[in-house]
Write a structure and sequence with these properties.
Structural class: alpha+beta
Number of strands: 22
Length: about 625
């Protein structure tokens, strides 16, 4: 559905469309409005088809969301085909779950009234301005998405019907007061402890590890020394941002350019439109009714009154058919042409047909275009000229880079010299973790391709971003496999030294623990009112302190392993939580309720899946052998 967004849409409308995508029907329920297809479906759920087109659209939406959330990190992940396959599978699982819930809601006979749909539309934030429903915004968004009001309302009906089942399920969850109270008491509890750290470092000087011991460990733990495939790249980079820094533009040149291109610095003309929309689904009847209304207007009928009584666009009808201010290129072409061909304010167009139905359009007002003064746009002009000159240079250099790196495929030195750049080099990195400068799925794909990796050739020019390109070649390559003993010998020896030193530290800690239990004097560090989430202490000590049993007549004593050593922990006292009030309890109840509700939803989907007939058809590949 989103492919119908017109190229001319931008600004607030375009951003609102992104908000609209968040609605649940962005992932499901679309295919039924797009017609049938002969292609193999992505899945069938109790006979209902999830099309490959629907899956692809949902997958691309999820990729875009992940890319926005993770940034450059996603580019690295996207270089791993198995990661993308798992991402696609998770999207398909969600689509299947959505269909199962819809089917269950329909089987239960759940229904949504027209009034509920209208309420949902008017309360949707994407259709609001300053917290109030904005009919002009609503109409504009529907136009950009390419929806007829009836189709959009039907999709909302299905979405709300499914939500009835989900909200009923999750709304049945509740949290007992004692549950929240108990959790609050556990989380707010503090403990008085003493502890003593036995550092393993002093013991390392007494540990000797032989090469034979290291080799024995290596042979017994081969799986620990498996290294991934690694690659190091040389690359030449071209970036228009770097080129633009060296471009100089005089004020005289900027003013001359401004005078020659004044039309580019005009605010576009805007027109305030109203319309009467006839869209009942019967094309012939709709056309006839629209033409009859147009005759009434020609005979002096009031436009606002006719719109209120007859327009299928119920929201604008309440305002006499008035929509919003539009620039050229925002609405559908037929609507756009009719609106901007009206010569006079108050003028009425002939009957116009669009994908939404039959319109009669009225011009309510006009905002003429205005030209900005040079002083107000001087820096904008200078920046534009810099970018234009840098862009011309970039294209020339990019072509040179392309030609030379292709003609001399076994080095980048010549190409770098021709474009005035340097050959840069990365360190070794695995396929799924490229350096930030080359964190791009296409770069990783090219680097591990046969021509570049096996044949030692330069890659093609790869676009990292608009006007930002790179050519890469392999500098070093290491196959995946078990690392040689010689390469890991020093690490193994250091590990064995640390292990034996830790053992010595553990023995000393246990001896100290015995002394404490026997009542002997042991110098300890004291910590009072230790909280469960203390940040200024080793988390292993904190965790151990809250695992230990409440002390009786004598303190509770135990030891705990640290990263380098051990600690003796003495629990002196458990303090009850303080400051538990209604605000704390309400927050805990809300969190627990959310967790329970999510578990209920997952259980519902699992139950529906267990009873459903779900198929995942695949295209059978046939191979024709040439005789």
């Amino acid at each position: 559905m989103l492919e119908k967004i017109r190229e001319g849409s931008q600004g607030v409308i375009a951003k609102s469309i992104l908000i609209l995508v968040i609605l649940s029907f962005a992932f499901a329920g679309v295919s039924s409005y797009l017609g049938s297809s002969s292609e193999v479906p992505a899945a069938t759920v109790n006979g209902q088809v999830i099309s490959s087109v629907e899956l692809e659209q949902a997958y691309q939406n999820e990729r875009a969301r992940m890319e926005q959330q993770l940034g450059d990190m996603f580019d690295a992940l996207a270089g791993d085909e198995s990661y993308l396959a798992n991402l696609r599978k998770s999207v398909l699982d969600r689509l299947v779950a959505q269909v199962l819930v819809e089917q269950a809601a329909n089987e239960l006979g759940l229904r949504v009234s027209d009034a509920q749909i209208k309420q949902a539309i008017t309360s949707e934030p994407a259709f609001q301005t300053d917290g109030q429903f904005d009919n002009n915004r609503y109409i504009s968004l529907l136009a950009q998405l390419g929806y007829q009001p009836a189709a959009f309302s039907e999709m909302m009906r299905q979405d709300l019907t499914s939500n009835q089942l989900i909200s009923t399920l999750v709304g049945s969850e509740f949290v007992l007061a004692d549950e929240a109270q108990q959790l609050a008491e556990l989380q707010g509890q503090t403990r008085n402890i003493q502890y003593k750290v036995v550092d393993a470092e002093p013991f390392t000087k007494d540990v000797k590890v032989t090469e034979a011991q290291a080799k024995e460990f290596y042979d017994a733990n081969q799986a620990q020394f498996v290294s991934p495939e690694l690659i190091s790249l040389e690359y030449v980079e071209l970036n228009i941002a770097d080129l633009a820094k060296n471009v100089q533009i005089s004020e005289a040149d900027a003013e001359q350019y401004y005078n020659e291109h004044k039309s580019a610095y005009q605010t576009p003309e805007k027109r305030l439109a109203a319309h009467i929309l006839i869209a009942t689904g019967d094309d012939d009847a709709d056309k006839a009714k629209a033409e009859e209304l147009h005759k009434q207007l020609e005979n002096g009928a009031d436009f606002a009154a006719l719109a209120k009584d007859n327009s299928s666009d119920q929201f604008s009808a309440e305002n006499g058919g008035q929509l919003d201010w539009f620039e050229k290129g925002v609405m559908q072409p037929e609507f756009d042409e009719a609106l901007f061909s009206l010569a006079d304010i108050g003028g009425i167009s002939p009957v116009v047909k669009t994908d939404f139905g039959y319109h009669i359009i009225k011009l309510d007002d006009v905002q003429k275009s205005q030209t900005a003064q040079f002083a107000d746009v001087k820096q904008q002009v200078i920046d534009q000229l810099k970018e234009d000159k840098a862009k011309d240079e970039f294209y020339q250099l990019e072509q040179t880079l392309r030609n030379v790196s292709y003609e001399i495929p076994d080095t980048l030195a010549d190409a770098a010299k021709e474009v005035g750049a340097e050959v840069k080099k990365t360190g070794l990195f695995p396929r799924n973790n490229p350096p930030a400068a080359l964190s791009n799925a296409e770069v990783v794909k090219a680097a591990f391709s046969d021509p570049v990796l096996l044949n030692g050739e330069n890659s093609d020019v790869i676009e990292l971003a608009p006007n930002h390109a790179v050519v890469v070649r392999v500098a070093e390559h290491k196959n995946a496999g078990v690392e040689a003993f010689a390469d890991v010998k020093a690490d193994i020896e250091a590990r064995l030294v640390q292990q034996q030193a830790n053992d010595m530290a553990r023995n000393q800690a246990q001896a100290l623990m015995t002394q404490v239990k026997n009542g002997d004097t042991v110098t300890m560090e004291t910590r009072t009112e230790l909280g469960r989430f203390a940040q200024d202490m080793d988390p292993s000590i904190v965790s151990k302190a809250f695992q230990m049993a409440t002390p009786g007549a004598t303190p509770t004593v135990d030891t705990v392993a640290l990263a380098q050593g051990y600690a003796v922990v003495v629990l002196d006292k458990v303090n009850a939580a303080q400051g538990i009030n209604d605000t704390v309890l309400d927050a805990l109840k809300q969190r627990l309720n959310s967790e329970y509700a999510n578990a209920d939803y997952l259980a519902l989907v699992a139950n529906l899946k267990s009873k459903a007939e779900i198929e995942y058809p695949v295209v059978e590949e046939t191979t024709t052998e040439l005789q």
